[in-house]
């Protein structure tokens, strides 16, 4: 049995939840002896990654980074040839089920049908009505989402999500064990770290603009993605963040991380702050928690359910100074910090690859 994941922007090290979730799902399926293949339109993608084969979709003519409107027009203009190419790929790979990862970026809006192949729409976000309505009109065999947050948001927008299934995101790599002494040292002197892509909804610029005094380093890793809200929007956020970091002593701004570096980097933090204004899952939070690093975040989307007692969740107003204050309070309480670190790790075990791969397999088979 082979499951195909279609996501036109997929390539290694893209700083985005959908791309990381796709390879983690695919690798998890391989680990439980179920086949997987990823289909992407990004020419920078390799032919194999983490032992998962990657197929290039050549009939979609777009350049990255790409905005939603440009991609939508390109998909609609080439829908027939895209369908023919996908059909050939699926026959060659003996695909049993296809997960169209997003109504737009995963080609769900055109979702071709082929005899004997199940179609699954993955709704990581509700997205534009123009795309989701088109995808649902194709009558997929199943709709999956990474959290109940997406189901609730869809219902609030007027969609019947009662039959959708929750299949959470999972981890690409599991961090090695961390000793209590190492974690104690990180509590005492470790840096506060932030990892995000350059989207305005990630709240990075506002966070940097409200830093209060810390006697430890603050390290921020930022990357651009092959998609953006509007042309040039990522560069605008980057320029503002660079200016704010340059004005603030103790703050180091660095380019984002390769996927294999994320777990170790987040595990080497005293606290990880996730300043997002919206999160339908929260992969950065999960990756930090799996390494025993407590997370501080707003109470938006899936983050309260995910983090629980594995960190501190503050009310969303948004007031980024409250995130800094919560981190300070956590670091001032060694007993509470140790409890949060333990809780973070044990909560993350619910999202380990083999467990999630079996959940996914039940839905798509």
UniProtKB/TrEMBL annotation:
Keywords: Glycosyltransferase, Transferase. Gene3D superfamilies: Glycogen Phosphorylase B (3.40.50.2000). InterPro entries: Glyco_trans_1. It comes from the Bacteria. SUPFAM superfamilies: UDP-Glycosyltransferase/glycogen phosphorylase (SSF53756). It holds the Pfam family Glycos_transf_1. The keyword Nuclease does not apply. Residues 195-343 form the Glycosyl transferase family domain. The keyword Ion transport does not apply. This is Glycosyltransferase family 4 protein. It comes from Micromonospora humida.
